[in-house]
């Protein structure tokens, strides 16, 4: 009976760095490791200090439990204030981001000086953290929620303006070119070509930014921008840890609720 010969399976091709590539790779990893060690030393990273402070951390947690539920009726107003700061700041920032995104896009604006000026404004709004904006506005207009709204408005406008400009430049331009060949003017192209393609994605970005702003509005209260953050800073300063744990729990519930709602809405949009 003839013996059937089975072909041996081909050997898998092995990928190997060239010698110069291996040298660069391991040299880069060594430099990165040295930088990491130096950074840890300069930032005083010390597991020993963390272990020595573990007892104090446990003591603070013990003193913070259970939350002071008697303070709950009094803290509803700061909780609403935190939510409103994030909501109004996100809405105003999104409105301001729309013209900035259009002016920053090469697809819409052909004049380089106008485009570069808009990109500089967007870059400035993004580069300055919202906490720094809050410090500036607290100094300018005083304590309260209004500085928080202004700081979130500017930072949101910078972030959404940048992302919106990138979305405009990445979208398919063939429908707009077809509308232009059919005789549509720029306003008609924008209303019937740009807006329908960008609106769902842009609205999803606004929802995501609202999630971020809700967390940021808590931190802004530490510099006097109102809301739960200001109450939390006061409670910690006065060693009222049970009140502080209540405020943190309220923040957690609010963030989880908003995250769940926005994720459902983003899923429907996609």
Task: Average the pLDDT over all residues and give the rounded result.
Answer: 81
Strand content: under 5%
Q: Helix and strand string, N-terminal first?
A: HHHHHHHHHHH
Head-to-tail CA distance between termini: 63 Å
How many β-strands, per DSSP? 0
Q: At the third CATH level, what is the topology name?
A: MetI-like fold
Largest sheet: none
* Oligomeric state: single chain
Within CATH, the superfamily carries the name: MetI-like
Supply Rg: 27 Å
Give the count of structural domains.
Answer: 1
Residues in helices, as a percent range: over 70%
CATH class: Mainly Alpha
Low-confidence stretches: none
* Class of secondary structure makeup: mainly alpha
Which overall shape is indicated by the principal axes computed on the Cα atoms?
A: globular
CATH architecture: Orthogonal Bundle
Number of helices: 11
Short description:
Residues 79-262 form the ABC transmembrane type-1 domain. The chain has a single domain (70-269), classed as MetI-like fold. Helices cover 78% and strands 0% of the residues.
Structure report:
This protein is mainly α. It has a single domain, classed as Orthogonal Bundle (MetI-like fold). 78% of the residues lie in helices and 0% in strands. The chain has eleven helices and no strands. Helix 4 runs parallel beside helix 7 and helix 9 packs antiparallel against helix 11. The chain is globular. The termini are far apart. It holds the Pfam family BPD_transp_1. This is Phosphonate transport system permease protein. It is found in: Cell membrane. Belongs to the binding-protein-dependent transport system permease family. It comes from Gluconacetobacter liquefaciens (Acetobacter liquefaciens).
């Amino acid at each position: 009976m003839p013996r059937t010969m089975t072909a041996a399976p081909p050997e898998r091709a092995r990928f190997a760095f060239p010698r110069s590539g291996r040298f660069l790779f391991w040299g880069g990893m060594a430099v990165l490791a040295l930088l990491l060690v130096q950074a840890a030393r300069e930032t005083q990273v010390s597991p020993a200090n963390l272990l020595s402070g573990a007892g104090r951390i446990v003591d603070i947690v013990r003193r913070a439990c259970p939350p002071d539920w008697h303070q709950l009726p009094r803290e509803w107003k700061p909780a609403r204030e935190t939510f409103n700061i994030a909501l109004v700041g996100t809405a105003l920032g999104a409105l301001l981001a729309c013209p900035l995104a259009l002016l920053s896009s090469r697809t819409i604006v052909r004049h380089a000086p106008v485009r570069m000026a808009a990109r500089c404004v967007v870059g400035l709004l993004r580069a300055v953290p919202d906490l720094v904006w809050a410090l500036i506005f607290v100094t300018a207009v005083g304590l309260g929620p209004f500085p928080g709204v202004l700081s979130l408005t500017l930072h949101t406008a910078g972030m959404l303006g940048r992302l919106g400009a990138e979305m405009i430049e990445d979208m398919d331009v063939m429908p707009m070119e077809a509308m232009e060949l059919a005789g549509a003017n720029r306003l008609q192209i924008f209303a019937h070509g740009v807006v329908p393609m960008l609106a769902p994605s842009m609205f999803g970005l606004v929802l995501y930014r609202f999630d971020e702003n809700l967390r940021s509005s808590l931190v802004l209260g530490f510099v006097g921008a109102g809301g739960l953050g200001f109450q939390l800073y006061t409670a910690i300063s006065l060693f009222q840890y049970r009140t502080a744990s209540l405020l943190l729990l309220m923040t957690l519930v609010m963030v989880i609720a908003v995250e769940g709602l926005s994720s459902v809405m983003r899923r429907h949009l996609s």
